[in-house]
Design brief:
341 residues; single chain; five-stranded mixed β-sheet; 54% helix; alpha/beta; six-stranded parallel β-sheet
């Protein structure tokens, strides 16, 4: 909405500037040919005539030159007035349209519930947003760089312009209603401040923070972060693993996790697989392997404890989850049978 309207005004401004340039050229050549002025005197006379500053003529004008001057004054007054009105309208429209768009975006953010707030839209923030988008999870970006906001803001990416260190900005992003906050700012000190503020404003939110230094890990945990990620350590460990166990790491890298058509691993709430209010079933009773081809490789009980490669007799209690592995077509078959999409 904003860009087409502003583009329309820009075109009108270009037309106005072109008309001003045309008047300037006509004036210079007119005085040069009609009055016999030098090029410098012609430019001088044209400028003082168009701007109506009231300086005297270079030399007395004859009747033809006077008529030309009258024509130039009347023409320039109309064109200059038109140009000023267009420029003023452009400035006012730009401000009002940006404000209208900001209010529209804020209204959309105010409707979100249990969403994720991403502080910082750098490399880590973009990756987090991309993953959440693939899962169709609602999220809001907080970014203080206006250029980044203008470059990436769209109807699909709600953004709040401001410093995530400020409580008011966090509240504009709906922190009081958010389920998760990801602090992906480049500075550990800024991340620490965000975590402290966020924990005070929302006691129940899951807070995930980025850290550059190992020494910041414990500080961020004490500040209230549920998880602290050190990208440099993870990246270095991954590269070393490619040396030690290259085939295993390559296999793991080729496993696609949820949110796209090539998914190989999926995490599913047990409550979506069968009616947990009736008789409790086991992994064996569920029989996912025969029904879909998928294999249960992990189980998370209602207390949050994980079991890798669980036994077939483990009971699938309410509020627990299973992690399944399969080829993309097997995962899709499971999603279709249990209406998980």
């Amino acid at each position: 909405m904003l860009n087409p309207i502003l583009s329309f005004f820009r075109k009108k401004i270009y037309v106005a500037l072109a008309l001003l340039l045309l008047v300037l050229v006509i004036g210079v050549f007119g005085y040069r040919l009609i009055s016999g002025y030098t090029w410098v005197d012609s430019i001088y006379m044209t400028v003082i005539t168009i701007t109506t500053v009231g300086f005297g003529e270079v030399q007395p004008l004859d009747e033809t030159s006077k008529l030309f001057t009258v024509f130039l004054i009347l023409t320039s007054v109309v064109i200059v007035g038109y140009a000023l009105s267009i420029i003023t309208e452009y400035i006012l429209s730009r401000n009002s349209l940006e404000e209208l768009k900001r209010k529209k975006m804020q209204k959309k953010i105010d409707t979100l519930q249990n969403h994720t707030i991403i502080c910082g839209y750098g490399r880590n923030g973009k990756q987090a947003a991309k993953k959440l988008m693939s899962y169709k999870k609602p999220f809001v970006i907080i970014e203080k760089d206006k250029e980044i906001i203008e470059k990436f803001e769209s109807e699909m990416i709600p953004m709040v312009h401001g410093n995530a260190n400020e409580d008011d900005i966090l509240m504009l992003a709906g922190l009081d209603r958010a389920s998760t906050l990801i602090s992906a700012l480049p500075s550990d000190a800024d991340n620490l401040f965000v975590v402290l503020s966020a924990r005070q404003l929302n006691k129940n939110a899951c807070i995930i923070s980025r850290a550059s230094q190992e020494t910041s890990y414990q500080k961020l945990k004490l500040a209230g972060a549920n998880n602290v990620i050190l990208p440099d350590i993870i990246g270095g460990d991954h590269m070393a693993s490619l040396v030690v166990v290259p085939d295993l790491i390559e296999f793991i890298d080729n496993l696609a996790v949820g949110g796209n058509e090539d998914v190989n691993i999926e995490e599913i709430d047990v409550d979506r697989l069968y009616n947990t209010s009736s008789k409790v079933q086991t992994i064996k009773d569920l029989d996912l392997r025969n029904k879909t081809g998928c294999t249960v490789i992990g189980y998370k009980n209602c207390d949050g404890e994980y079991i890798v490669n669980p036994e077939a007799e483990i009971k699938l209690v309410p509020n627990s989850k299973v992690i399944v592995l399969g080829r993309p077509e097997q995962i899709q078959k499971m999603n279709s049978i249990y209406e998980l999409d």
